[in-house]
Known about the structure:
Blueprint (H helix, E strand, L loop, with lengths): L12 E6 L3 E10 L3 E11 L3 E2 L2 E2 L2 H19 L5 E6 L5 E15 L2 H15 L4 E13 L2 E4 L6 E15 H12 L4 E7 H9 L2 H6 L1 E6 L4 E7 L2 E8 L3 H12 L3 H11 L12 E4 L9 E4 H25 L9 E5 L8 H9 L2 E4 L5 E2 L11 H11 L24 H14 L1
Parallel strand pairs: 1-6, 3-19, 6-11, 12-17, 17-18
Antiparallel strand pairs: 1-2, 2-3, 4-5, 7-10, 8-9, 8-10, 12-13, 13-14, 15-16
Helix pairs in contact: 1-3, 2-11, 4-10, 6-7, 6-8, 8-9
Amino acid sequence: MISRGRKTKNEAQAVLDIGSSKVVCLIGQADPNMGVRILGSGFGVSSGLKSGAVVDIHAVEHGVRTAVEKAEREAGVAVQSVAVNVAVRSLRSEHLKVQTEFANGEVADRDLRRLVNSSLSEFAQPEQTILHAIPLSWSVDGERNIDEPRGMYGSSLGVDMHFVMAGVGPLRNLAHCIERCHLSINSVSASPYAAGLSVLTEDEKDLGVTLIDLGGGITSASVFRDNSLVHVETLAVGGVTLTKDIARGLMTPPEAAERIKMIYGSALHGADDDRESIPCPPMGAQDTLHHEPKSMLTGIIRSRIEEIFEILRDRMNQKGLDAYSGRRIVLTGGGAQLNGVRELAEYVFNKRARIGRPHGVLGLDESLSSPDFAVATGLLKYQFLKEKDVITGPPDLTGRRYMKKRYSGGSIGRSIQWLRENF
């Protein structure tokens, strides 16, 4: 049985990746050699999300139940609590620099705790939940980029914090769906963060990299630098949008458009595209099967994917992240499997690109090693591996946990635990 309480080193953990087209449940356990081992996996159809937000509670509940039950049977354990992903249009990054003065002397644990707690209470906003709070660097007496301030002497201590925020409303609805399955949430992670933990190498996270997760309802991006998550970005456009583009352009039902995308889809024009035709099932009973040139399909796909990349590029350039994010793009998610997407990313971003696949997890069969399982495997890694994240435990569904007037020992306890595990 998977416990509701705090995880132990050998305790099995369950995670849920709830997307716009599928629900994935993985059950894993810490492994002394590879970090994490998968014990069981399960999948369910998801049709109750739109742009990451719940639009049909019953559909989401059915997908979650199906995925969890399959994973339980394979792993031979009963699930009571899960870690879940968050990929909504309100997901965003904020940065805050906090500094405190203290009597000239040696920096101790209590000074770090006080500063981190101060940043949480100062930054908290109504109807927003802090998913991740990551100290990027410390400073002592103005000397910046210090990794380990404890033991140093000075009269002022500062920290640069990265907060990943999301609106409380979508998370409340997601939690409600999971509670209807008689499950509780023990932790949450932003999807682009989890995907990065799954597919990025240590060198990429250190030197600078941009990860783009081409999901069904949401396209999200994360930037890593100096082994820390430094930015997230989301766009409420994904594979579902592309399928609708194809359905409209080829005048065919969405189900047929999805199949056409998977079989014939490409983001790059081929030499024979004008001569090759694609059979398109009719929209209605009175229509007949018709054919369209493959060049039309390729044009639809390229136009949408290129637009997604250009919007992400321009947003990150406006925030000064271009040089900071290194010379590497890593693509993951179901959309990353389309032919020509990697080459198109290199063209738009003017950087080297590769397709990211999950690694560093034992028990990955061929199906789980594809790019569209990056978030699920990353969630499992997030459960066991130590990361620079102050926020642990169940999500804040009130949007007020870290408000100054409500700031209490629970938050301080989380900061203390984080400091113990990371310093």
